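We treat protein structure as text, and this decision shapes the records that our systems exchange. The tokens are whole numbers drawn from a learned vocabulary of local backbone shapes. Below, we set out a record of this kind in full and without editing:
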Amino acid sequence: MQDDLLLRYSRQVMLPEFDYDGQQALVSSKALILGLGGLGSPAALYLAAAGVGELWLVDDDKVELSNLQRQIIHSETSVGQDKVASAKESLLRLNQHTAVHTWNQRLPEDSLTELIMKADVVLDCTDNFSSRFLTNRLCMKTGTPLVSAAAIRWEGQMLIVNPRSENMPCYACLYGEGGDQSQSCSETGIMSPVVGMMGVWQALEAIKLLSGVGPEMAGLLSVFDGLRGQWRQLKVPKNPNCECCGNNELAE
């Protein structure tokens, strides 16, 4: 790692749990972010700032004025622009050493599978249950760690799925296929810092997975109540009859 990069990331390298090896792991890693909205915005910004080597961004939407209340990677001048293009501009202004690749489309399953297989970690920052179930299934199939979050109204939640850990549950163990019939922000509203907190937390847990730092968080459902300022963590049991991971047969 060059001297200018060591200086840039010096406050992280100083951490004894992280050190030079942790930073080098980030610089050499690839993170796939699905969705550049309220969750993906802070997640992408902090991953780039922390020094992740490559960010792969997937989103087929354009920036709208109503997005700007919470999707902080975009600006007023981004309205009408593809979200991935707007996000790429912001990320490269922040850190030119992070390579940013974009897909402005809803990827077919085979293409998404290929991307997930090549990624070191996947951040599911989408806003609908069908995308979350699909991403969970493909991460289990490819053995790729997944950090999945959601936020609505004043509440947020996050679940880490790590197929590489023995006997760990997946997203479908928690909800069952098709069980998470959550409403969207456009229907029920969202307090902007709540979704920001969840996106930042996704970035932190992705960094820990990429660097191998910290205790195993997979299988814990983290729940945040922004109105009351309360955090809870619940252990999710593995469902032996889960249609997605019940047999735990990962792709080779």
